[in-house]
Here is the input.
Amino acid sequence: MAQQIRHENIIKLITEQGFVSIDELVLLFDVTPQTIRRDLNLLAQDNRIRRYHGGAAIESSTVNTEYSKRKAQQLDQKRRIAEAVVTLIPDNASIFINIGTTNEAIARELLQRNGLKVITNNLNVASILSSKEDFQITITGGQVRSRDGGIIGEATMDFIKQFRVDFGIIGISGIEEDGSLMDFDYQEVRVAQAIIEHSRLVILAADSSKFGCRTVNYLGDLSLIDTLVTDQAPPKKISQLMKQLKRKLIVAS
Here is the structure.
């Protein structure tokens, strides 16, 4: 396939999916990873896409990918992250889980555990976990978003502040090289900050597409978390920062 045609097909695929990985493109176009990396670098230089660790997306710092598309992206990576996260959670633990498709994958894996007490602002997480009779599921107050079942607002933060739990499991939209944790939604940031403040241990679950992703709402930095669980080794600067901060890094490869 000619390079120009492959480039147009790559852009079309990224536009449809929001994000595509190098592995996906290698399989689709039957070329080497080096060829795909060159393609993505050229497209990024022309400002047609944004290059991320492990893949590429359409340039955007203000608009999140539609929920239904995000749910279909990085499925294997999310499953591996979820499996790794659940190894950190013992039976009978208390947990916060916030909004995000990776957290929904984690909820499915948590069904292996017993006696969990879960507080969540994610209706999809609550629905998944409610099938387990020995689980105690509490849904926060607040405003429900129809697009993804997330619950947000001042009432959500006030509700969370009534508790102190063993583990806070949070997702994020972007992790910049300086360790900044970024998100698309200001209200999600406020809720995540409340979860971090009221959790004894904080687990950040983020697939590799989040490395280098730039958005506009600042949550804090990597010093706020205890463990980062991802599917690929982070960029060198982030890995070095994790070591400096003495934070645990788990790569679910």
Q: What stands out?
A: The first strand starts at residue 19 and ends at 21. The chain has a mean pLDDT of 89. Residues 3-17 form the longest helix (15 residues). The CA atoms of residues 53 and 211 lie 6 Å apart.
